[in-house]
Design a protein that fits this description.
By secondary structure, the chain is of the alpha/beta class. It is built from eleven helices and eight strands. An eight-stranded parallel β-sheet has the order 2-1-3-8-7-4-5-6, with helices on both faces. Helix 9 packs parallel to helix 10.
């Protein structure tokens, strides 16, 4: 079986030169995954754009139209962290649509992934923290609308609390929202998820994985029909915005726990990148790549190139 990895970096995200967001990380990750996992262009698909109707399943009409039409005021743009541009709109639509299509792959093959997504700070009527639309909330709502699933679980292991996920989905009895994050990190206001685990600054591999193992037992008790996994790598020690002290080996152990749990429970899983702001950025790229390597190993994926060689 070959993978089908969706990506949104085919759409340029125009940012000022002095902007702090490392937008190149998506392209660089795709290039490294392609090289390290011996993939070809056939193993990647451009993320389809979400429609306005998709966004309105979970977001406010006025907010959605302001983003699409470019009428967001300056304060709303500052809260998001990106200046408005047509490229920003298309990139966010692709990131949202790509997660949904990765979910369809997961329902078919057990695993689906996008080299983008995890925009967990987007709320009903505003965006924040580099997140414009909430791809997980849109995906869950659209899957339900189309009759694919009823019960969904969010496993959010980005170092920043998934406040948008909590505000949009925690009141839904058919969605289990789990966030494990830094206690003293962004955002300052952290609405309650179904399960929140807040780690103190400097937390290391052992503590992280110990807490995760306990949490996965809670997720298992919910009996979800699909898992959406925000595999942010900003818990890495080298991350400039993380404040935790996980190693690459610790993040790999984290990913192995999540994927092995999904496999043993026979639950389809959608994997998206989430946050990563390493110094050097190569540490982030390596951590993202490691997650894909673990997934490929456990799910038994082979690349198109390898499949051809085996014929």
């Amino acid at each position: 079986m070959r993978p089908n990895l969706f990506y949104a970096d085919y759409i340029e995200l125009p940012l000022p030169k002095e902007h702090s967001f490392p937008a190149d990380k998506y392209r660089l990750t795709r290039e490294k995954i392609k090289k390290d996992l011996s993939l070809t262009d056939e193993d990647f698909s451009p993320s389809p754009l979400a429609s306005r109707e998709d966004l309105l399943l979970v977001h406010d009409t006025e907010y959605v139209d302001a983003v699409i039409n470019g009428s967001l005021d300056a304060s709303a743009q500052r809260r998001i962290g990106f200046p408005w541009s047509p490229g920003l709109v298309r990139r966010c639509l692709a990131s949202t649509g790509g997660t949904y299509h990765a979910a369809l792959d997961a329902l078919k093959n057990g695993y689906g992934a996008q080299l983008a997504g995890g925009t967990h700070h987007a709320h009903y009527d505003f965006g924040a923290g580099y997140c414009v639309f909430n791809d997980f909330a849109v995906t869950v709502a659209k899957l339900r609308k189309e009759g694919f699933v009823k019960k969904a679980a969010i496993i959010d292991l980005d170092v920043h609390h998934g406040d948008g996920n909590a505000s949009l989905m925690s009141s839904d009895p058919d969605t289990f929202v789990f966030s494990m994050h830094g206690a003293k990190n962004y955002p300052s206001r952290k609405p309650s998820s179904d399960l929140d685990i807040a780690l103190e600054n400097g937390a290391e591999d052992r503590e992280f994985c110990k807490q995760l193992e306990k949490a996965l037992r809670r997720v298992a008790g919910f009996k979800p029909e699909i898992i959406l996994y925000q595999a942010g790598v900003d818990a890495l020690h080298e991350d400039t915005l993380g404040y935790l002290s996980l190693t690459h080996q610790g993040l790999q152990a984290r990913d192995r726990l999540v994927f092995e749990f999904a496999i043993s429970s026979n639950i389809p899983i959608v994997h998206v990148l989430g946050g990563g702001y390493g110094n050097p950025l190569s540490a982030t790229i390596q951590a993202y790549t490691n997650t894909f390597q673990i997934a490929f190993e456990l799910y038994g994926f082979c690349s198109t190139k390898k499949a051809r060689n085996n014929k």
